[in-house]
Write a structure and sequence with these properties.
There is one protein chain. The protein has seven helices and seven strands. The longest helix is centred in the middle third of the chain and has 13 residues. The strands form two sheets. Strands 3-2-4-1-5 form a five-stranded parallel sheet, sandwiched between helices. By secondary structure, the chain is an alpha/beta fold. Helices cover about 40% and strands about 15% of the residues.
Length: about 180
Amino acid sequence: MAPSGTLFLVSTPIGHYDDITLRALHVLREADVVVCEERKEGERLLSHYGIRDKTVETLNEHNEAAATPHVLGFLRAGRNVALISDAGTPVISDPGLILVQSAIGAAIPVVPVPGPSSIIPALTVSGFAIDRFVFCGFLSPKSGRRKTELHALRHEARTMILMDTPYRLLALLRDV
């Protein structure tokens, strides 16, 4: 049996293209397949860095379960795959967990390529104690359920990180 390819989880810039790492660029150039959250964003990123003629696939919250076996097929065929999100680190409040779990279950190597993340920079400039913190990710978009989730966190003493989309931020702040 031929050796499998490797799944690389490649962090991409958040808002400023200069924030990409040299290693991320190397992996994106060398990967056989780039799997992105949204094709338009993925192709824009690759084009910006002059990376052309790549097989580009999508894996997002709408197709993750269906796209995972397809991507695993590339890996089983010995092709290296770079998974990127629209911005930041794949799988952190972004799709890809099913793919990562499936790759691990199939003994396919999974390699993180560290880089931009919204969490650590936000913490470092917050002025809050960050020797210990808890990442809560996205709460429910529905106010009633979100209030229940916030109520469950009310006794948490560590700095908490909540994520949300810009268009829901005011509603979240009101519920907080």
